[in-house]
Amino acid sequence: MARTAEVVRNTKETQISVSVDLDGSGVSDVQTGIGFFDHMLDAFTRFSGIDLKVRTQGDLHIDFHHTVEDTGIAIGQAIRQALDGFKGIYRFGHAYVPMDETLTRCALDLCNRPYLIWKVAFKTPKIGEFDTELFKEFHHAFAMNLGACVHLETLYGDNSHHIAESGFKALARALRAAVELDPKTHGHAPSTKGVL
């Protein structure tokens, strides 16, 4: 059975369409109107192995906030739909990703009890024109709408670009492990409750 989904989200602030294929090969086709954000989502796609297509039109004349947060909402919703009740997956994933002087760790649980622990501090308020505070907004929106408990921590680092990118790659690698099909679940949700 194909583990794919499409989500369309239209508001007064953003118009977004997202499609995902959990069993893809990491093909990225992302256009949000924000170059650095596209770069981060490209990295997320490549290292998660999830095919991702995103088309976002947002109110960039105001700022980047709505575009970044709402794209996180839509991607989280699409992956959640593709997971079909979290059945048959490994559920947990973790990764350490070094990038030059930076090291970031991500651990996540696809449990339908969303939570975000965010221990990431940026050295600068912006990367180019991108407000670094928006990275937390993206990850929070993503986790809440996916139904994932995400713990993301930069253990050390100096360069804001490296801190951001290692975080997206760590999230991607952890998610890649969690969404993998586990034959020992026999297609059921991996929980003592029997459902997630």
Automatic annotation (TrEMBL):
PROSITE patterns found in the cross-reference section: IGP_DEHYDRATASE_1, IGP_DEHYDRATASE_2
What the entry lists under CDD domains is as follows: IGPD
Q: Which InterPro entries match?
A: IGPD_sf, ImidazoleglycerolP_deHydtase, ImidazoleglycerP_deHydtase_CS, Ribosomal_Su5_D2-typ_SF
Per its UniProt record, what Pfam families does this chain match?
IGPD
Q: Does the keyword Lyase apply?
A: yes
Gene Ontology terms, MF aspect: imidazoleglycerol-phosphate dehydratase activity
Q: Which pathway is it part of?
A: Amino-acid biosynthesis; L-histidine biosynthesis; L-histidine from 5-phospho-alpha-D-ribose 1-diphosphate: step 6/9
Could you name the Gene Ontology cellular component terms for this entry? cytoplasm
The domain of life for this entry's organism is Bacteria
Name a biological process GO annotation: L-histidine biosynthetic process
Q: Which controlled-vocabulary keywords does the entry list?
A: Amino-acid biosynthesis, Cytoplasm, Histidine biosynthesis, Lyase
Provide the reaction this enzyme catalyses: D-erythro-1-(imidazol-4-yl)glycerol 3-phosphate = 3-(imidazol-4-yl)-2-oxopropyl phosphate + H2O
Q: Name the Enzyme Commission number(s) assigned to this protein.
A: 4.2.1.19
The reply to whether Amino-acid biosynthesis figures as a keyword in the UniProt entry is: yes
| Major enzyme class | lyase
Q: Where in the cell is it found?
A: Cytoplasm
Q: Which family does it belong to?
A: Belongs to the imidazoleglycerol-phosphate dehydratase family.
Database matches in PANTHER family: IMIDAZOLEGLYCEROL-PHOSPHATE DEHYDRATASE, IMIDAZOLEGLYCEROL-PHOSPHATE DEHYDRATASE HIS7
Tell me the protein's name.
Imidazoleglycerol-phosphate dehydratase
- Supply the source organism for this entry: Phenylobacterium glaciei
**Taxonomic lineage:** Bacteria, Pseudomonadati, Pseudomonadota, Alphaproteobacteria, Caulobacterales
Designated gene of the protein: hisB
